[in-house]
Specification:
Blueprint (H helix, E strand, L loop, with lengths): L1 E3 L12 H11 L8 E3 L21 E7 L7 H12 L3 E7 L2 H9 L4 E4 L1 H9 L4 E5 L8 E4 L13 E4 L5 H13 L7 E4 L3 H10 L4 E4 L1 H6 L6 E5 H4 L7 E5 H6 L1 H19 L4 H11 L5 H13 L11 H13 L9 H4 L3 H10 L5
Parallel strand pairs: 1-9, 3-4, 3-5, 8-9, 8-10
Antiparallel strand pairs: 2-4, 5-12, 6-12, 7-10, 7-11
Length: 360
């Protein structure tokens, strides 16, 4: 059973492409880069005996990302800063909605960050994109229940708050219900809104459980809420964010496409070394000045302890196909093309080979 409390339209990774089409038609032929640009910051370029950083001088790498820069974007931004260190001409455009991301890709963007459903919806609509790299190999979500909900079985007859059933939350809801042995009709699934709205609804008791980031879990620690399911540790085939590039750009800039994977892989290694925690926090504060540095350091330690960014992670066909099937099942996709048609795994494999032991 699915109800609705409020809807936030297309401002999420799981936005329906119908609304995107409406926005694209309103943009017309104007430049879609109306979103906020983000300056990059200097980082140390890793050098090992087995890896020489690529020469990217003059290579245009324009990144489009959903929302605004927050702590959850640290790995992506660290990787982009590495690319800048290697000579690439990089920029980040923060799009206020998924539909603006699509518009940006049609009007000059080269690389778009998004969940699998976002990129596949774009591909199925005719936007020439393909998945080329994996900045977020594990889904940053937990299913968090109120103090009276201590197990998945307790969800029976209770209210599960989500954004909608046709995106990431829909997939996560199906996974949790299957793990609980419950049918969808046995739980009141309520469309509440985005993550901040769901968090407020959970705390206020308007819903009994919802999917939230590990940062939200950390913020609510000690208040009696229960982790009912951890998508990062209990379902490791769920990718979070992917890099989708214009197909023509990737094929004509193969060195840069490989370099993007190398930057991701080295960012994982950097993150997983606890000695770099202070550096990670400092870099995060450079683009999100409102963070609590102590809490951010603790969050990074927590994510490191549960394997948020496993060393050596690159795109793999099996998880991509599995998630494509999930998103088709909840109605987020209207077609299931062959994985090879909308992704290119060769860049990640080449990066892993180039880095060798440096990626581990």
């Amino acid at each position: 059973m699915v109800g609705s409390l409020s809807r936030k339209g297309l401002g999420t990774k799981a936005a329906a492409l119908v609304g995107a089409g409406l926005l694209l038609s309103s943009v017309g032929m104007t430049n879609a880069f109306a979103s906020k640009s983000h300056a990059v910051h200097s980082v140390k370029s890793p050098r090992t005996a087995s890896f020489v950083p690529p020469k990217l001088k003059g290579t245009d790498m324009s990144f489009i990302m959903d929302g605004t820069a927050t702590t959850s974007n640290e790995i992506e931004i660290h990787a982009i800063n590495l690319l800048a260190k290697w000579g690439a001409k990089v920029s980040i455009h923060w799009a206020p909605s998924t539909s603006i991301e699509y518009a940006d890709m049609l009007h000059g963007g080269t690389i778009m960050e998004g969940g699998l459903s976002v990129g596949l919806a774009a591909y199925n609509s005719g936007i020439p994109v393909e998945a080329i790299a994996l900045p977020e190999p594990r889904q940053d979500y937990v299913l968090l229940g109120r103090p009276n909900i201590s197990s998945l079985a307790d969800l029976k007859g209770k209210t599960l708050g989500i954004l909608d059933m046709v995106g990431e939350n829909g997939v996560d809801a199906l996974i949790a219900l299957k793990a609980a042995g419950l049918k969808q009709s046995q739980v009141n699934i309520l469309n509440v809104g985005g993550q901040s709205t769901r968090l407020a609804a959970l705390v206020a008791g308007r819903i009994d459980a919802t999917m939230l980031s590990h940062a939200s879990e950390f913020a609510l620690a000690g208040q009696g809420f229960h982790v009912l399911y951890d998508y990062m540790t209990q379902n490791k085939d769920l990718y979070d964010g992917l890099w989708f590039a214009r197909s023509t750009w990737a094929k004509s800039h193969q060195t840069a496409a490989v370099a993007l994977n190398e930057a991701d892989l080295l960012s994982f290694v950097y993150f997983n070394n606890k000695a770099n925690n202070a550096g990670l926090v400092k870099e995060t504060a450079s683009y999100d000045s409102g963070i609590n540095t102590s809490q951010t350091a603790s969050l990074f330690n927590q994510l490191r302890s549960i394997g948020a960014y496993p060393d050596g992670s690159i795109l793999s066909a099996s998880p991509l196909k599995l998630q494509e099937i999930y998103y088709n099942k909840v109605g987020a996709l209207t077609a299931q093309p062959a994985v090879a048609g909308w992704s290119d795994l060769s860049y990640g494999k080449k990066a892993l080979a180039d880095l060798g032991a440096a990626a581990r």
